[in-house]
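Re: weekly structure request thread

Next one in the queue (271 aa):
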Amino acid sequence: MATTLELTASELALIENARKQEILNQEAKALKELAQFEKDSRAAEVYIKNQQDSFQAQIQATTNYYNELVKLNPKYKLIINSTEDYKHIYDSRLIHDRKILKTIPYTKSIAHIILEDTPYKIYVAKHITTSRYRHSADNGYKMQLTGHAQSLYNARYLTNPKTVNKKIKDELEAIKYKKESEIKSLNSLEQAYKDMQALYPDANIVTGKEWLSNKYSKSRGEYINIMTIKLANGIVFKFRVYTDGSLSKLNLIFPAQNNLELISKLNSLTF
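Done, posted below.
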C-alpha cells in the first residue's frame, strides 16, 4: 500500500517563499538589464551627438579656409562627403558574440578642398600636439596639403591660405616647366639625330638616355640624353645632347686591337 507524503504548513510556506524570491530575483535582474540598456542608450546618444558636433566643427573650419582660398583662386572647390554609420548597443551580459539590442543610425560627414584639374587636396583637421610629459594641447583646426609627390613634405599643418596657395602654384609651375623641358629635350635629341644622319649617312647612330652620377654625391644625379655615332671607319663617338641642341663629348673609341696599333693609326692622321 502506497504511502502519501504530505508537507507541513511550514514546509509549504518555505516553498512559496522560495518561488516568490525567484520571481523577485528575475524581476530585479530584468530591471537591472533595463537600467543598463537605458544607460547604454543614453551613452550612445551622447556619443552620436559629440560625433556630429565634431563633424559640423570640421565642416565649418574647412568652409572658413575655403572662403579665403577661393579669393585667391576661383578653381578651389569645397567637397562634403556624407556616409551612413551606425552605433550598436550590445547585450552587456555577453562577452563574446554579443547580441545587438539596438542599432542607431547617424550621418557621418567630412569636408575637404580640391583645386580643380589638379591632384591637390586640402584636408582640415585638429592639430593635437603632445609634450614630452604626455600633456596634449589642442592647437585648433589647420590645413594639410596633399597631392603631387613633391608636396609630401607639405603634410605638416598650415594655417595661412596664402602659403598653401603659393605652394600649389609653385609646384604647378615646376611641373609645367619640367614637362616643357622634357619636350624641348626630346625635340633637341631628334633634331641632333637628323643633323648627324644628314652629315654622316653611312654612320650607325643610336640615341637614348643614360644616368649621370653627381660627382659630389653618388646617390644623386640625373638622366641625360645621349647619342652614339659609329662612323664607317669604326670610330665611335658618344655625346651628351643638351636641350639647346649642343653636344658634349663623353667618349671616343678608336678601332684598334691594342695600344701600339692605336698609336700607329693615330700617327697616320693629319689635321
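The mean pLDDT is 86. The CA atoms of residues 49 and 168 lie 36 Å apart.
Next request, please.
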